[in-house]
User: What shape does this take?
Amino acid sequence: MRKIALIFILISSITFADDHTVAVIDFTGEGVHTEELKSLSQQFRLELLKMDTLRVLDYDEMRKTLSIAGYETPSCPTLSCGVIVSMLLEQEWLANAHIVKIGDAYIVEAQLFDIETGRVINVVNYDKENSLDGLKTRGMHNVAELLLS
Assistant: This one.
């Protein structure tokens, strides 16, 4: 009987464990149009939502919170800005990326921050040649997997 109760408690704790919360701010970039950057950050959010262990902050809710705090756009070009924004959003993690187009290649540098400590958990670089569509369809999936690995 004691073993059954222990197994039940273990299964319950796994089933009801808190998922990690993450906010994804709009990506920044060079040589990439602002609307394309927003589209890529939205695709990245969708890729994170597909992972069952994350709760991704709603984009409109994030914009509203940052607007109240005086931020016009939900993007940050610097590490210090990312840390401040992450604290305002009250999520466990914050993800952002900077995308640069060089010739026919797109280079993505993505970062994942721990909000409580302000530390960078992970930084990944990813490149995709020739196609912005390829970056959106497969690239954001790959960046999400690499960043959370």
Q: What stands out?
A: Helices lie at 2-15, 34-49, 59-68, 79-89, 132-148. The CA atoms of residues 59 and 72 lie 14 Å apart. DSSP finds five helices and six strands in the chain.
